[in-house]
Amino acid sequence: MEITYNPTDLLRLQSELSSSRQIVLLGHVSPDGDAVGSTLALSRVLRKQGHSTKVLYPTPYPHSFGFLEGASEVVIAKHSPEEAIRLLEEAEMIFLMDFNEPKRVEQLEQPLISSKAFKVMIDHHLHPTGMVDVCFSYPQKAATCLLTYELIMALGWETYMDKQVAECIYTGMMTDTGGFNYNSEDPCLYTALSVLLEHGIEKDAITSLITRSFSVDKVRLNAYLLANNLTFFPKYHTAIITMGMKEKSMFEYQVGDTEGLVNEPLAAKDIHFSIFLHEQAKYTKISLRSKGKFPANEFASKFFNGGGHHNAAGAEVYASLNSVYDMVLEAVKLMHPEDND
């Protein structure tokens, strides 16, 4: 869907960037390909214009994105909390990328709110909070990376596009659409893709690096979870996968090792909704994927104060894995009252 961006917002952003700035590009907790790609892409574009930039995440990104330009320079708040807070305190401008509420940056929430920096949101999730000076929020866009690309063009910054920027943008577009398999019917997505290809990206090689360059432990972990921790509920067209601390220890779990696992049950006939429950130290993470008309985001927000998109959503619940499993199953039943006896 083609969008005409608010010229007042574009002019205000350009005005704020008219002189050199100390800029932080902030991604959400457990950064995915869209958060990583959009922050690194925009960081490189801004650096080319003479700005000093730092990319900051609350927690580490998956190793599969380590090949992207600038990834090795990212500051991780979990590893360097004092530096992370200092960056937010000293920033003159902060870009909030791929999230729209401060709780999504966990321990950086209060430093972000307290910062006097000029704040810009670039995001594609529903219901943005009013905590920024300029907001580019378009839920109809498939990925924040697509939105970032279009803003680069709308601001007249296409001269700063290069292969490295294009690789970052492609990463977010590809991962947030499941390899262009869902939420991917916007013609603008493919218009952007054609431009990225013209900049020399090796699309197939990047896709392989992200989705086919796994450690042996990762492959074994995913196989184990599908064989032992996957339950189908045909009556509700639903599948649930669980991963507890035991499995993470057995296979030396690394961040990103289960990326995409939640999509696998959707390959089964008549399964329209897939749920992955991932036990963390203090909470259980819920990842949701659906196909067709089943609203994953409605399920997340209605029962677990989560959010996301129609076919991809998530939430976090401060309860044990077993407790959350019971909650999720009950919620599934409530979403299918016609199938309950």
Describe the protein's architecture and organization.
Strands 3-2-1-4-5-6 form a 6-stranded parallel beta sheet, sandwiched between helices. It has a 6-stranded mixed beta sheet with strand order 7-8-9-10-12-11. The protein has helices at 7-16, 33-48, 81-90, 109-114, 144-154, 163-176, 187-198, 203-211, 216-228, 245-250, 296-304, 321-335, and strands at 22-26, 52-57, 75-76, 93-97, 118-123, 134-137, 230-233, 238-243, 273-279, 284-290, 307-308, 312-317. It folds into 2 domains: 7-211, inorganic pyrophosphatase (n-terminal core); 216-339, Roll (Diaminopimelate Epimerase, Chain A, domain 1). The longest helix is centred in the first third of the chain and has 16 residues, at 33-48. α2 (33-48) packs parallel to α5, α6 packs antiparallel against α7 (187-198) and α6 (163-176) packs across α8 (203-211). With 341 residues, it is α/β, with parallel strands linked by helices. A hairpin with a 4-residue loop joins β7 and β8 (238-243). It is globular, with a radius of gyration of 20 Å. It comes from Porphyromonas levii. InterPro entries: DDH_dom, DHH_sf, DHHA1_dom, Oligoribo/pAp-PDE_c-di-AMP_PDE. This is Bifunctional oligoribonuclease/PAP phosphatase NrnA.
